[in-house]
Write a structure and sequence with these properties.
Structural class: mainly beta
Strand content: 15-25%
Strand order of the largest sheet: 1-4
Order of helices and strands: EEEHE
CATH class: Alpha Beta
Radius of gyration: 10 Å
Low-confidence stretches: none
Helix content: under 10%
Mean pLDDT: 97
Number of strands: 4
Length: about 55
């Protein structure tokens, strides 16, 4: 299951370059994760400074 970025995202961009699958991109108003590309590795969870990335449901 792909991870999701919640409304707590502050659009800092820290997660985007860390994603090994290039699944994260800037959205409006917060970053988004493409579930088709996400490998569920969790790297983005570890680097998010505001804990805005959670496992999807």
């Amino acid at each position: 299951m792909a991870h999701v970025i919640t409304d707590e995202c502050v659009s800092c961009g820290t997660c985007e370059p860390e994603c090994p699958c290039d699944a994260i991109s800037a959205g409006d108003p917060i970053y988004v994760i493409d579930p088709e590309k996400c490998s569920d590795c969790g790297v983005c969870v570890d680097v998010c400074p505001v804990a805005a990335i959670k496992p999807g449901e």
